[in-house]
Design a protein that fits this description.
Elements (H helix, E strand, L loop, with lengths): L3 E8 L8 E8 L2 E7 L10 E3 L4 E2 L3 E3 L22 E6 L14 H12 L3 H7 L7 H10 L5 E4 L1 E2 H9 L9 H17 L3 E5 L19 H10 L7 E5 L9 H14 L2 E7 L7 H13 L3 E6 L10
Parallel strand pairs: 1-4, 1-5, 6-7, 7-8, 9-10, 10-11, 11-12, 12-13
Antiparallel strand pairs: 1-2, 2-3
Helix pairs in contact: 4-5, 5-6, 6-7, 7-8
């Protein structure tokens, strides 16, 4: 017997095939049958009539900043209302770990500035009781999030943890090695990859560029290279050219980082508009391929709108 039978909905299976009216059977938490409507013969302990609705796999949102919100709102509102069942946090180099509680004030003020999260929420809703990345993941898991969630390891948190108030200086070889070691530990604990930013719009709570913006290329390459030892990881990076047009040097950096990691690298956000430069931006993927890398653009299924507050 099935645990659940969803009947009469328009099934869109995510393969690119046309939608069709069908029945979907679920047993032990897994889809076990997909058939044309009315053809399901196995009984189910629970039935849902989805006539007039779309039945689809859950959406994966690759770029979120739920790192803090999940600690006071395990529903990840409003994402599930849009069909999202899996989220990736820790983007743009902004994470709450592996830096310990002694860095909580700096990190909370940075997150408030770059992501528009109310500072009071970060100060009262986040316990800041972890010392490393593994303990942060345990804290998120203990809050029983309603969505599947994974987190990248943020460059700015790594820099702050290793360099403290000197995070705006060039890193010494020893400091780079220490950051790489922290990243290895975080990835081994379950981190999904490495993220960073050089975006001119990313400033900390004091209005000063975030720590990752002070890193040299060699530091980026060393940290990206750590991902090579951890299967299934990825890179995420925002460069100044993401909001205008990539320079040849930026496209080359994308390719070198992906090749060093032997992992895909994604950037956001690709905007498509009349007279836009999306073809130029997408050519970053071609350049990366010449270095042995794989670069992917993220975009949004709507026209770009400017919002000011």
């Amino acid at each position: 017997m099935l645990d659940l039978l969803i009947t009469g909905g328009t099934v869109v299976d995510g393969t690119g095939a046309p939608g069709f009216t069908g029945d979907v059977g679920v047993r032990d938490g897994r889809i076990v049958s997909v058939a044309p409507a009315g053809s399901a013969t196995e009984a189910a302990s629970s039935n849902v009539d989805a006539t007039g609705l779309v039945v689809a796999p859950g959406f994966v949102d690759l770029h979120t900043h739920y790192d803090a919100q999940l600690l006071w709102d395990p529903t990840a509102s409003p994402s599930p209302l849009h069909g999202v069942t899996t989220i990736f946090g820790g983007n743009c180099g902004f994470t709450l770990a592996p830096a310990g509680p002694e860095h909580s004030d700096y990190l909370s003020r940075m997150m408030a500035r770059v992501e528009g999260i109310p500072l009071a929420a970060l100060q009262t809703g986040v316990p800041w009781d972890w010392q490393n990345y593994a303990e942060y993941l345990d804290r998120v898991e203990a809050n029983r999030p309603a969505v599947n969630c994974g987190f990248l390891v943020g460059h700015s948190a790594l820099r702050r943890s290793v360099m403290g108030d000197a995070m705006r200086d060039p890193a010494s070889p020893a400091q780079v090695d220490a950051m790489v070691a922290l990243l290895h530990d975080a990835l081994a604990a379950g981190g999904m990859g490495f993220s960073s930013s050089r975006a001119p719009t990313h400033n900390d709570g004091e209005g000063i560029p975030v720590p990752s913006r002070f890193a040299e290329d060699a530091e980026f390459l060393a940290l990206a290279g750590a991902c090579r030892d951890h299967p299934g990881t990825q890179l995420e990076l925002i460069l100044p050219g993401t909001t205008s047009a990539f320079s040849p040097e930026e496209m080359e950096l994308f390719g070198r980082l992906s090749a060093a990691a032997q992992r895909p690298l994604n950037w956001n956000v690709l905007s498509v508009a009349a007279g836009g430069n999306h073809e130029h931006q997408l050519s970053a993927s071609d350049v990366a391929a010449t270095f042995g890398g794989r670069v992917l653009a993220l975009t949004m299924p709507l026209t770009l709108q400017l919002r000011l507050s």
